[in-house]
Amino acid sequence: VGALQTNESCRSGQYTSRGECCKQCQPGEGVVEPCGVSQTVCAQCVDSETFSENFSHTERCQPCTKCTGLMRMLTPCTDTNDAICACDYSYYMSEVTGTCEPCAVCPVGSGVLMRCDPNHDTVCEECTEDTFSEDESMLDPCMPCTICEEEFDIQLASCTPTRDTICQ
Where is the TNFR-Cys domain (predicted)? Predict the structure, then answer.
């Protein structure tokens, strides 16, 4: 009589028809033949093509994610982990659309408070007193205004949010 052994835990929680605990495939392996009449049969996943992240007696190797379109690969697919993709440089993943969107460019008179990254758009701020931004940019913050040297320079124009001080 094939009695189940209760002193050892069966991690899969499943048994063959003969009462053996079903073997779990390790991460990096996938099920080729599921447990039932006979024991689980596992096979190695193919690096860069398929992967398996978990111990499982049911899960097959899964196809690797392909980074296409505006996506670039951050981490390649291995037999134990899927590829990780991110938006190309100058793009971010929009929570609204779920697609890569171009990073915002701060207009003249505004500077970058936070640069665009794969998950967040550029955050711009208006240049305040004593700062300016003469160019559109997705990289540069508002710059401090030039202070004319009293002894040598004459101030021809005051600093504005869109133009630096003009000294002569």
Answer: 9-42, 44-85, 86-124, 126-167
